[in-house]
Amino acid sequence: MSKLREFVKLDYFTIKPYFTVKNLLLYGAVVLFLTIMSADISTGLGIGMMFATMHTGYPFIAGEKCNMDALYITLSIRKKIVVLGRYIFTFIINICFVLAVFAFSLIVILVYGTFGNGLQMAANSSLLLIMPALFMSMQAIQLPLYFKLGYAKAKFISIIPFAIIMAGYMVLTGFQGGISGLSETLNSVFASGFAYLAIGAVFMGIMYASYRLSLVFYTKREF
Fold it and tell me: What is the pTM (predicted TM-score) of this model?
């Protein structure tokens, strides 16, 4: 357990240079702007999860630049610890971005309440739950590719799921009433608590399968 905790901390320090004040302010400005323009908190959450997905590849980028995989062997860190620690670190990144987006959304809500002149901020609870699960499922597809091929070789293949999701979103928003229709559909589906349980079970299955696949791929690699 202590080695796992130390590995997660090592991942943090490895990518810490990417979390500059300039980058964080830029991310916050984009989330604020798009949330205000759409008057929908789920839009800001989608952008936040997109940033989180981008950052899941950073430990692999830094690892390849500094040959960290060979260092893990030198430090007697088992490959199972590396894979599990990387998944835990990815989960922490997602949680941090989700909390940051909700903090920014609170600011937007306060601004709307004070200066909005009757304007209201939309917040579809179904989308707020599905969007993190959707992006994390996409990350679950990307991570085994990173562990098998390394970031440099897998980066093009790994953006395909993201491109498909973004293309689908753009097509949907291109139709009048597309987003509102999706929201109504999701609300009807989630009227029953069973839908939450089903999606939760599928999500956990995807994450477990992703972890096992990553473990198999990474165990076979030689450094």
Answer: 0.82
116 residue type, one letter: G
Question: First CA to last CA across the chain, in angstroms?
Answer: 24
Separation of alpha carbons 101 and 69, rounded Å: 33
Rounded to 10 degrees, the C-alpha dihedral 140/141/143/145 comes to 160
Q: Tens digit of pLDDT for each residue in 159-208?
A: 777 677 667 666 655 554 545 555 566 566 566 666 677 778 888 999 99
Looking at the 3D structure of the chain, how many domains does it have? Answer: 1
Per-residue tokens: 183: 């929201």
Q: What is the rounded CA–CA span in Å between residue 12 and residue 6? A: 10
Q: Which domain holds residue 163?
A: 2-220
* CA gyration radius, the chain: 19
CB 157 within 8 A of CB 166: no
Closest CA to 8 of 69, 65, 92, 80: 92
Judged by phi (left if over 0) then psi (alpha if -120 to 50, else beta), residue 67 lies in left
